């Protein structure tokens, strides 16, 4: 029986992936390793156990914690500190120790086990200033990328893997990019089989959304609990755009990659919802009204927030060409699902999301 280790396994992405793998592959052992640092992650432990996933309270910063796992055949590394704003107002020590040194500990564990390694990186490896210098147009509800651009790796369809990496990107993005570089060396030096997926905005049920990470769930939750919101920056109109990807669509891609690691070994893929699953805050507000039935006051803040970007859309062309994978779950389906989840777990989630 093969063993799958999912680091950050009680977090939003990790817990959902662990449960999906266990549901769809009954003949594997799935272990979720998590330090439970993020508020709300403790709510996922009963879900994991009910679905046959083993939970281990451990921290990737401590290489000794891997001893409790034993050996694994597949490692899915999604244990990062996910906040784009991490390190701005406090010490970056936890961020660096988790997102960089923690990755090294995971790689060393994978090397000793001979395990396949799937790394969830981020679209935030791409530099902020270059992204914000892109040509765009403004419509009634959103900003849109222009097809005419002066640099490679960008079109109206979004950013490709050829987009420049030259520039600053926040410490969060830097730790993830540094991890990518170390992974490439482990592939070359030790023959480890690894895939890097630069994920855009991931979302779905059981995400404990905050302003700096998980904004889709946060937006729905504020509407459900009837709490005020802010359109931050870019004239305060809510026209910033992101593409969003349901975590179950990410699961389908990881299954494809795991089943054909020889083909995908060493590859780096941009992975997101793409243009068809992109949405502005203004548009998201209207969907939240539709599915929660509530309207909330939204304040306009003209000044741009530190490290924010106007538009990010993932161009999935490479990963689709190599795997045949495309996102399936629509934006409407995502917002409806999140609304139903909050409604069904209203009192349990209130202290965290309200």
From TrEMBL:
<dbReference type="InterPro" id="IPR001509">
    <property type="entry name" value="Epimerase_deHydtase"/>
</dbReference>
<keyword id="KW-0413">Isomerase</keyword>
<dbReference type="InterPro" id="IPR036291">
    <property type="entry name" value="NAD(P)-bd_dom_sf"/>
</dbReference>
<comment type="similarity">
    <text>Belongs to the NAD(P)-dependent epimerase/dehydratase family.</text>
</comment>
<dbReference type="Pfam" id="PF01370">
    <property type="entry name" value="Epimerase"/>
</dbReference>
<dbReference type="GO" id="GO:0047732">
    <property type="term" value="F:CDP-abequose epimerase activity"/>
</dbReference>
<protein>
    <submittedName>
        <fullName>Nucleoside-diphosphate-sugar epimerase</fullName>
        <ecNumber>5.1.3.10</ecNumber>
    </submittedName>
</protein>
<feature type="domain" description="NAD-dependent epimerase/dehydratase">
    <location>
        <begin position="5"/>
        <end position="272"/>
    </location>
</feature>
């Amino acid at each position: 029986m093969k063993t799958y280790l999912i680091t950050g396994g009680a977090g939003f992405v990790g817990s959902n992936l662990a449960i999906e793998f266990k549901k769809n592959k009954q003949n594997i052992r799935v272990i979720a390793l998590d330090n439970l640092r993020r508020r709300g992650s403790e709510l996922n432990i009963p879900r994991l156990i009910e679905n046959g996933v083993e939970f281990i309270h451990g921290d990737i910063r401590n290489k000794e914690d891997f001893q409790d796992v034993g050996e694994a055949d597949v490692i899915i590394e999604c244990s990062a500190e996910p906040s784009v704003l991490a390190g701005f107002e406090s010490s970056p020590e936890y961020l660096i120790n988790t997102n960089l040194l923690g990755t090294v500990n995971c790689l060393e564990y994978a090397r000793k086990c001979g395990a396949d390694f799937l790394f969830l990186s981020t679209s935030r490896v791409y530099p902020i200033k270059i992204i914000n210098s892109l040509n765009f147009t403004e419509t009634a509800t959103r900003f849109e990328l222009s097809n005419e651009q002066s640099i490679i790796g960008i079109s109206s369809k979004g950013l490709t893997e050829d987009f420049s990496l030259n520039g600053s990107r926040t410490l969060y993005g830097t730790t993830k990019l540094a991890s990518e570089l170390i992974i490439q060396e482990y592939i070359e030096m030790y023959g480890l089989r690894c895939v890097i997926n630069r994920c855009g905005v991931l979302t779905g049920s059981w995400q404990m959304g905050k302003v700096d990470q998980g904004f889709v769930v946060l937006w729905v939750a504020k509407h459900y609990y009837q709490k005020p919101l802010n359109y931050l920056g870019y004239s305060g109109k809510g026209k910033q755009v992101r593409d969003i990807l349901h975590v179950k669509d990410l699961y389908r891609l990881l299954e494809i990659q795991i089943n054909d690691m020889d083909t995908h070994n060493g590859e780096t893929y941009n992975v997101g919802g793409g243009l068809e699953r992109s949405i502005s805050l203004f548009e998201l507000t209207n969907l939240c009204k539709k599915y929660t039935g509530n309207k909330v006051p939204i304040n306009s803040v003209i000044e741009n927030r530190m490290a924010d970007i106007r538009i990010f859309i993932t161009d999935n062309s490479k990963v689709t060409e190599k795997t045949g994978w495309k996102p399936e779950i629509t934006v409407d389906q995502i917002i409806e699902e999140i609304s139903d989840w909050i409604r069904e777990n209203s009192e349990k989630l209130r202290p965290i999301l309200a």
